[in-house]
Amino acid sequence: MNLFAHFETEILAAVDRLKADGHLPQDAECNGLSVEPPRDAAHGDIATNAAMVLAKKAAMNPRELAGHLSGYLEKSAHIAKIDIAGPGFINLTLKPEFWGQIVTAVLDDDSIYGQSDIGQGEKINVEYVSANPTGPLHVGHCRGAVFGDALANLLAFAGYDVTREYYVNDAGAQVDVFGRSAYLRYREALGEDIGEIPQGLYPGDYLKPVGAKLAEEHGKALLDMEEAAWLPIVREAAVAAAMDGIKHDLAILNIHHDVFVSERSLIEGEEDQVAATIDWLTEQGLVYEGRLPPPKGKRLEGWEDREQSLFRATEFGDDIDRALIKSDGGYTYFASDMAYHRDKFSRGFATMINVWGADHSGYVKRMQAAVRALTGGEGELDIKICQLVNLFRSGEPVKMSKRSGDFVTVRDIVEEVGRDSVRFMMLYRKNDAPLDFDFAKVVEQSRDNPVFYVQYAHARAHSVFRKAHEAFPDLDPDNPTITAPKLSLLDHEAEIAVMKRLAHFPRLVQSAATAHEPHRVAFYLSDLAGDFHGLWNRGKELPQLRFINLGNRELTDARLALVMATARVLRAGFDVLGVRAIKELR
RNA sequence: GGUCCCGUAGCUCAGUUGGAUAGAGCAGCGGACUUCUAAUCCGCAGGUCGCAGGUUCGAAUCCUGCCGGGAUCGCCA
Fold first, then answer.
1. What is the pLDDT of residues A499-515, one digit of tens each?
2. Number of folded domains in chain A?
3. What is the pTM of this model?
4. Residue nearest to nucleotide B3 (CA to C1')
5. What's the pLDDT tens digit per position in A210-225?
6. Is position A481 within any domain?
7. B chain positions with any atom within 7 Å of a protein CB
8. Which residue's C-alpha is at the least distance from the C1' of B70?
């Protein structure tokens, strides 16, 4: 049950009655109607602007119209009080016993509470990570990886048909460099002293096994070849090894993509899809030969003013037209990315989401312009930029040296603090704000550490079940079943606060999903945990408020139902974030 | 210089897509607690939402222009 959706239908029914009795014209529409929790809880449980939205149509001032509307709402069950406030808000306060229905709804095994159908099964493509296959994943990739994965979970929970996708940039100049780096390791594996890795090549040790394997498979055969002959072989082996490593790194974060699309395969497959895309754009009159002005305000070494094939990106909202073909005849990265997005669209994804790092923010307009052009305005691309992660260790910044290839990898982080802490922390911030990640803090067992705080709430709930089992052995300590609890017994303000929070979950899921903002789920969990801890603490002062009352099984059952409901919603939120809910603290 | 993002309490950040008197957590101040329902709790104080205009019943939120911080600018990926 979605509290706000439920009352929206009641309000709309009241509006219909207003039309029936002539207060409103038949054609009056509720555009911009809101049914939401008021900002200030003192105003009640549900606020609606219905009267304000309809005032003009009714030729009545909003407060007067609100008076008529509330006359009809009063007849509805569950409403304890109706206030008309401010410019014409209608505030509904529900009867305390209403909230028990939320607990019932959460515990109903026939549906998953919070799950939504707003997605209507629409196909949606989430492309995330897409790191170059030239080495292990490091912190920079980690945030986008976790973000994309949680967003995909969230969208699935909200009823979309989600595909998780990874674009493998295995075609550009970078992977050639990577291949040459691997070739050096190959020569090294054959006993040659290669000295220091030259500037510009990949220095990391992770290519050594690739070199060794090449030596094993090819012996000295590659030494006598021209680069044009050995490069494809070495490059392919290096990329394959890098992708294996990346998939392993993703797996330790519990991230599993459905589809990997190779850039090279777009070009070298049965049909050159990049060429086909450029042809198509040319037919549409969107490609021309021309010159680009050099970037202003920044001197560029070796800027080459030349006539080239340009895509009319400016017609679709970009600042400048974009090059498609490099001077060496190869496709620009952008050209193959256009082909890739055209491919996505042709696979039935009208809605696409790309998750990128901050360093790609300058690329956003271009790609969105491309999608507009390629889909005739039918496709929609949302690009989520993940800002930088700053690493700290007990408040001290962690230094990273990229030059030596000695950066902090996903593996390092997960091994040190655990997958769940990494995932939660990466989501405990809006994606477009920078994030501070402190190795010491995320494993701290204190109120300061939101990971702990939320995990602890779930563990506490389960500790109640274990205690309940000791007191009443018929109760299953893992999953106590309580038949027909008398939920009206839950009338303390701290209990009602928890139930209200539970009531907000479905709405929260919907808004987070439509905004493509999984961090809202993390903050919600923190709030819910806060309410639950608050209730727990009240039980310390007021023993009669404790969950388990030996002399009163009926009350205990009602409270256990509430604890169960809380644990379930925490669990549902954790599932969206991809964080494991723990039942016991170590 | 252009573009994009950010600017909210001393600090770190939320803010339900335009709603009412802007919220949390730290830190601060004042109390309580000496405990396994443990890994603290309760209360208080704290604000010109960067600045100035605009849009309207109503703006932290939308539009414009400034100021400050960050990222980015390519035939790289």
1. 999 999 999 999 999 99
2. 3
3. 0.95
4. A362
5. 999 999 999 999 999 9
6. yes
7. 1-6, 12-17, 19-26, 37-42, 57-58, 70-77
8. A434
Judge contact between A287 and A281, C-beta under 8 A: yes
Over residues A567-577, the pLDDT tens digits come to 999 999 999 99
Q: Does A551 lie in the same domain as A454?
A: yes
Burial A565-583 (b: 16+ CB within 10 A, else e): bbbbbbebbbbbbbbbbeb
Q: How far is the CA of A311 from the C1' of B23 (A)?
A: 48
d(CA A68, CA A206): 73
Q: Is the pLDDT of residue A106 over 80?
A: yes
Domain-ending residue, one of A234, A252, A270:
A252
Residue A53 and residue A32 in contact, taking contact as beta carbons nearer than 8 Å: yes
Closest nucleotide (C1' vs CA) to A52 is B57
- Domain span holding position A511: 446-577
Q: Which helix (H) or strand (E) holds A396?
A: strand A396-397
Confidence category of residue A183, pLDDT binned at 50, 70, 90: very high
CA of A15 to C1' of B68 (A): 50
Round to a whole number and report the distance in Å from the CA of A520 to the C1' of B27: 25
pLDDT at A290 over 80: yes
The ipTM assigned to this model is 0.95
Q: Judging by DSSP bridges, how do beta strands A259-262 and A161-168 pair with one another?
A: parallel
Q: Which residue's alpha carbon is at the shortest distance from the C1' of B26?
A: A448
Cβ distance A472 to A553 under 8 Å? yes
The enclosing domain of A86 has a CATH number of 3.30.1360.70
A438-490, pLDDT tens digit by residue? 999 899 888 889 999 999 999 999 999 999 998 899 998 888 888 889 999 99
CA of A53 to C1' of B49 (A): 27
Rounded distance in angstroms from the CA atom of residue A39 to the C1' atom of nucleotide B60: 14
**Separation in Å: B57 C1' and A241 CA:** 63
Radius of gyration of chain A from its Cα atoms, rounded to whole angstroms? 29
